[in-house]
Design brief:
CATH architecture of one domain: Orthogonal Bundle
CATH superfamily of one domain: Isoleucyl-tRNA Synthetase, Domain 1
Structural class: alpha+beta
Shape: globular
CATH class of one domain: Mainly Alpha
Radius of gyration: 31 Å
Helix content: 25-40%
Number of strands: 32
Length: 810
């Protein structure tokens, strides 16, 4: 009977749907995809899971603020995550949502098992709760949460509790024995410190309190031994201690809101619950790793096949939930615990973690559109399988290749992002992100390194050997043989080193690949094949140099495939080797043997793969990510022109009868009074007419003086309420908080570009000293500031948290 294939089960965290995805989410998902591809090419039957976490008080509040049901709110944001992962070519096997019936069934089954095993009881709770983290916190109510900084709220309610205190020693045994491998070491130490209790509380005790017979300072283990004798510490292992009772029981239900999975009714009745209960969001969410495999369903074949998980990928801020609560739940339910949990660091922008509240989020879509502009047209690779399909819907700008379809662009840019994040950031550590750094790394490693090696080698084979890989002759009698050992030795040495690297040593791996490319480049420069080609007596030496260089490209491409699947596929095609995905499936990439390239292989159609990125690309991506700021230059209000020469002029983009007007040539829009007739009466040259293609607005608009500008009162406001206006497709009604000025109602014609749920909570800039204007029977008291391009979406000018609402801009 043949051996069953080895299985590998890998999960990302399921992402909370309180905000749209950014590249911090993409980083973890990319890591998961790289690992999944790697284990698949090793011949392991791999199951890769991702998804979204959609319950909890924070979601219920956000949906209420948006004026829509929670399910509608979560449907929208979850779809954004899934659409993005599909755009990026993420090869997940399943996408789980915690609002799915299959998940509800599995969670209730797990809750029932914990209750039947005697680890759940009903009690009441009064204490501090962090709505942002959906976690109970041991800190005073009204103080900042120690994890996220949001103010803690007091909660008094009836709860079901889980006997987490019963698992202090089992958890320590599980982690210390490495049956649950937690990496990096910093995450493991954090978890152990939480489970065993704060040793500092023991070290702060006096000699007298510890029962020491002398007054000299105690050594650490002397203090621990004395504390052990007094019952303040318990011992496990040789020299390992923990503070008994440091791990407290955990509330695992909520009765003060309803957006969640109901605790089974028969359990509520049996326990004597007086209110309806929903399952605590972290018990609910963590169970997704099992419910996606069919746990609790009629068909649990995947569960039987893949559980326990080989690896949970998590962000470091949720390590405790995964490494303490999750294995405790599983042990209590007599279920095997995961084998490993790995926490990645944060992506930092301006030295701070990316977050919606800080206003420093970089969207993955910006990278896809920005670097997608470099994607060479597939027509240049005719015959290689990269042919154009649907023309890209995005506006053509500058050097953007019109033939490249959107899918080509997205996957090319995704590979650049994958390479940058994994090369630049040692996994497990925090890493800085900037557009400039990404461009620099792309040019250095991909365009100038890998790309230049591919281009010059294959073009010389095309020129000197009619596109067929030449046969090498490593020993040429009577001549000075080309020494190829430096390349072969470097390849074999790296293969050996690769075998010693952990799955997540991405940065080390890519550094070694870049070093190998440097070795091959040096070999080519030293051999100078362009000189050998001029001497007919050195044809064999020329063939040997180009064969070795092409073999190096094959080896590099096969090695890089899990990280850059799209780019390496194009190189593989140009080498004449066909579909790299088939090579991965049949095991060729898992067993790369130096010298495996067959002489006589006919190259595919050659074409550019790695165009250099101009530094101007950074500004283009900045413009894509952020609204264009308004500036004052020489006393005049100006909208800076885009760096892209092909961009159309900035002008009013909102074509709606009751909505917005441009203000003095700026990119702002107003709902204030107008001297323009109604839409149906507007003259052809009026504001509602199609704007001219040129010149730029900043040149065509009337000038104003600084005295004119200072009359405009700009203040920071926060959107508290936003809703559509019946029978007005383009209008939104907003209630904005202006601090000392109170709350105002503003109507704005942005409904085609912003949904009400997107607007709630935004901090925007408002012109507050406009005369009121009535539209659709409603008065509008102000104007929202925005930037726009012809025919494009208006981008609201927003500000990060930290600046008080009502603050005037000067």
């Amino acid at each position: 009977m043949p051996d069953q294939p080895k299985t590998y089960y890998l999960t990302t965290p399921i992402y909370y749907v309180n905000a749209r995805p950014h590249i911090g989410h993409a980083y973890t998902t990319i890591v998961g995809d790289v690992l999944a591809r790697r284990h698949r090419l090793l011949g392991e039957e791999t199951f890769f899971l991702t998804g979204t976490d959609e319950h909890g008080q924070k979601i219920e509040r956000s949906a209420a603020a948006a004026g829509i049901p929670p399910q509608q709110f979560t449907d929208k944001v979850s779809a954004q995550f899934r659409t993005l992962w599909d755009r990026m070519g993420i090869t997940y096997n399943d996408y789980i949502r915690t609002t799915e019936p299959r998940h509800k069934q599995g969670v209730q089954q797990l809750f029932r098992k914990l209750y039947e095993n005697g680890f759940i009881y009903l009690d009441s709770y009064t204490g501090a709760y962090c709505v942002s983290d959906e976690a109970f916190v041991d800190a005073p109510v009204g103080t900042p949460c120690p994890d996220c900084g949001k103010l803690l709220e007091e909660v008094t309610e009836e709860n079901f509790f889980f006997k987490l205190s019963a698992f202090q020693k089992p958890l320590l045994d599980l982690i210390e024995s490495n049956k649950l491998a937690i990496t990096p070491p910093s995450a493991r130490n954090e978890v152990l410190s939480f489970v065993r209790g704060d040793w500092n509380s023991i070290l702060e005790l006096s000699n007298e309190e510890l029962g020491a017979e002398h007054s000299e300072p105690l050594e650490v283990f002397e203090a621990f031994d004395l504390a052990h004798q007094k019952g303040l510490l318990e011992k496990f292992g040789e020299d390992l201690y923990y503070i008994p009772g440091a791990l407290k029981d955990l509330s695992i239900s909520r009765s003060s809101f309803s957006w969640g999975i109901p605790v089974p009714e028969d359990i509520q009745k049996a326990a004597g619950a007086t209110k309806p209960h929903v399952v605590y969001v972290w018990l609910d969410a963590l169970a997704n790793y099992m419910t996606a495999l069919g746990y609790g369903s009629d068909d649990d074949s995947l569960w039987q096949k893949f559980w326990p998980a080989d690896l949970h990928l998590v962000g470091k801020e949720i390590t405790r939930f995964h490494c303490v609560y999750w294995p405790a739940f599983l042990m209590a339910a007599d279920i095997a615990t995961p084998k490993a949990i790995t926490a990645n660091g944060w992506l930092l922008f301006d030295n701070a973690k990316m977050s919606k509240s800080k206003g420093n989020v970089v969207r993955s879509e910006t990278i896809l559109e920005g670097f997608g502009r470099l994607c060479p047209p597939p027509l240049a690779l005719k015959g290689t399988g990269f042919s154009p399909s649907v023309t890209s819907p995005i506006r053509e700008e500058g050097a953007l290749a019109p033939e490249a379809n959107q899918r080509d662009r997205d996957l090319f840019a995704t590979d650049v992002l994958r390479y940058f994040l994994l090369r630049e950031i040692p996994f497990g550590q925090d890493g800085s992100f900037s557009f400039d750094a990404m461009i620099t790394r792309y040019n250095a490693d991909l365009a100038n390194g890998y790309g230049n090696l591919v281009s010059r080698t294959l073009n010389m084979i095309q020129q000197y050997f009619a596109g067929a890989v030449p046969s090498p002759i490593f020993e040429v009698p009577g001549t000075d043989a080309i020494d190829t050992s430096v390349v072969g030795a470097a390849a074999i040495a790296f293969q050996k080193k690769l075998a010693t690297l952990r799955d997540t040593d991405f940065s080390t791996f890519l550094t070694e690949v870049a070093a190998f490319i440097t070795v091959v480049d040096g070999f080519i420069s030293a051999a100078a094949p362009w000189k050998l080609a001029k001497d007919p007596t050195k044809a064999d030496q020329l063939a040997t140099v180009l064969y070795v260089s092409a073999e190096a490209i094959r080896w590099i491409s096969g090695t890089l495939f899990p990280i850059c699947p799209t780019i390496t596929a194009k190189v593989w095609q140009q080498l004449g080797l066909g579909d790299i995905n088939l090579a991965a499936t049949d095991g060729e990439l898992a067993h790369l043997i130096w010298g495996g390239l067959k002489p006589g292989t006919q190259l595919g159609t050659l074409g550019p793969i790695f165009p250099r990125a101009d530094k101007g690309l950074a500004q283009i991506m900045i413009d894509l990510e952020n609204p264009t700021p308004l500036t004052i230059e020489n006393g005049k209000l100006k909208t800076p022109a885009t760096t892209d020469p092909a961009a159309p002029p900035r002008t009013a983009s909102l074509d709606e009868p009751s909505g917005t007007l441009t203000v003095g040539g700026s990119a702002a829009h107003t709902t204030g009074p107008s001297t323009t007739p109604s839409h149906t009466e507007a003259p052809a040259s009026g504001i509602f007419a199609t704007p001219p293609a040129a010149p730029a607005v900043s040149d065509a608009s009337p000038e104003i003086t600084i005295d004119d500008f200072v009359k405009v009162e700009l203040r920071i406001a926060e959107v508290k309420v936003c809703e559509r206006i019946p029978k007005a497709d383009k209008l939104l009604r907003l209630e904005v908080d202006l601090g000392p000025l109170g709350t105002r109602q503003i109507l704005s014609g942005i409904a085609e570009h912003y949904t009400p749920e997107e607007m709630v909570g935004k901090r925007i800039i408002v012109i507050t000293n406009l005369a009121p204007r009535k539209m659709r029977g409603l008065e509008s008291h102000g104007m929202l500031l925005a930037a726009s391009e012809e025919g494009g979406k208006p981008f609201l000018a927003t500000v990060p948290e930290g600046v008080p609402v009502g603050t005037r801009l000067k």
